[in-house]
Write a structure and sequence with these properties.
Blueprint lengths: L3 E2 L2 H21 L5 E7 L3 H17 L2 E7 L5 H13 L5 E4 L9 H7 L11 H9 L7 H12 L8 E5 L6 H10 L3 E5 L6 H5 L4 E4 L17 E4 L3 E2 L5 E2 L4 H4 L5 E2 L6 H18 L4
Parallel strand pairs: 1-11, 2-3, 2-4, 5-6, 5-7, 7-8, 8-11
Antiparallel strand pairs: 9-10
Bound molecules: guanine.
Keywords: Amino-acid biosynthesis, Histidine biosynthesis, Hydrolase, Methionine biosynthesis, Multifunctional enzyme, NADP, One-carbon metabolism, Oxidoreductase, Purine biosynthesis
Family: Belongs to the tetrahydrofolate dehydrogenase/cyclohydrolase family.
Function: Catalyzes the oxidation of 5,10-methylenetetrahydrofolate to 5,10-methenyltetrahydrofolate and then the hydrolysis of 5,10-methenyltetrahydrofolate to 10-formyltetrahydrofolate.
């Protein structure tokens, strides 16, 4: 079997077109969704993500602003800024780019953002709603993954989904969203024994480990759906995934590439969340 590719770049382009039309409608009613991105320090990867977000916002007609702060910024200074943005009615979504410098506690910052402006879906209140299945902002990468699966009408109910990785941003929430879709979910992580056997039992395999080409064909069952969340920079500067694409594509039924896979979907779902924030959570 040669797998069908789920192209996140193409799906993103379609979704952005739909959003553009929706944003035009909102603008006619006097509502322009606005996203404020806060970048602390000069991490090159963060800078490039933030650029991608600004560009994508522009394509959909969403207005965005970037606040850049020096790496010496104190936690109090950042919390003060977040309070101001929480109170600013023209700002619908707030995103503080992670990671933050060591002197700033990430969790304090995440919890300072008003849950109604938390377009990352990282606030404990929104994570709680996600767990109970209430309507809320879903974390962008997991939301993008579920959207990719749905775009190909891939059945999740009753399927064995194996998530490799347990980060707060990707692994944990994607497992929860798969559970919400009635999949049977197993998490694997660095302390898991027999990871290969567990992965090779998956109908849907989510690789979010952060190690280039760690998932080889031996980890994959014939006909499995393989979602690669890895973004690993190779010595030649090119990006590559956690999955050994060339060997796994011969076994899987569907596979996401890197680049042009999950990455573009993350930004697209951020824009979806920004529109949702502008309309009001229930809108
Ligand atoms: N850094 C890497 N991914 C993300 C993300 O999805 N949101 C934020 N705020 N920072 C990130």
């Amino acid at each position: 079997m040669t797998a069908q590719i789920i192209n996140g770049k193409e799906l993103s382009a379609e979704l952005k077109q739909e959003m553009k039309v929706e944003v035009e409608g909102l603008k006619q009613k006097g509502l322009t969704p606005h996203l404020t991105v806060v970048l602390v320090g000069d991490n090159p990867a963060s800078k490039s993500y933030v650029k991608g977000k600004e560009k994508a916002a522009e394509i959909t007609g969403i207005s965005s602003s970037l606040i850049e702060l020096p790496s010496s910024t104190s936690e109090d200074e950042l919390l003060q800024l977040i309070n101001e943005l929480n109170d600013d009615k023209s700002v619908h979504g707030i995103l503080v780019q992670l990671p933050l410098p060591d002197q700033i506690r990430e969790q304090q910052v995440i919890e300072a953002i008003h849950p109604d402006k938390d377009v990352d879906g990282f606030h404990p209140s929104n994570i709680g709603k996600m767990m109970t299945g209430e309507d809320t902002f879903l974390p962008c990468t997991p939301f993008g993954i579920i959207t990719m699966l749905k775009s190909k009408a891939i059945e999740m109910e009753g399927k064995h989904a194996v998530v490799i990785g347990r980060s707060n941003i990707v692994g944990k929430p994607v497992g929860q969203l798969l559970l919400n879709e009635n999949a049977t979910v197993t998490y694997c992580h660095s302390k898991t024994k027999n990871m290969k056997e567990i992965a090779a039992n998956a109908d849907i395999l989510i690789a979010a480990i952060g190690k280039a080409h760690a998932i080889t064909a031996e980890y994959v069952k014939e006909g499995a759906v393989v979602i690669d969340v890895g973004i690993n920079r190779q010595p030649d500067g090119k990006l590559t995934g956690d999955v050994d694409f060339e060997s796994v594509k011969e076994i899987a039924s569907y596979i996401t590439p890197v680049p042009k896979g999950v990455g573009p979907m993350t930004i697209t779902m951020l824009l979806k969340n920004t529109i949702k924030a502008a309309k009001g959570l229930s809108g």
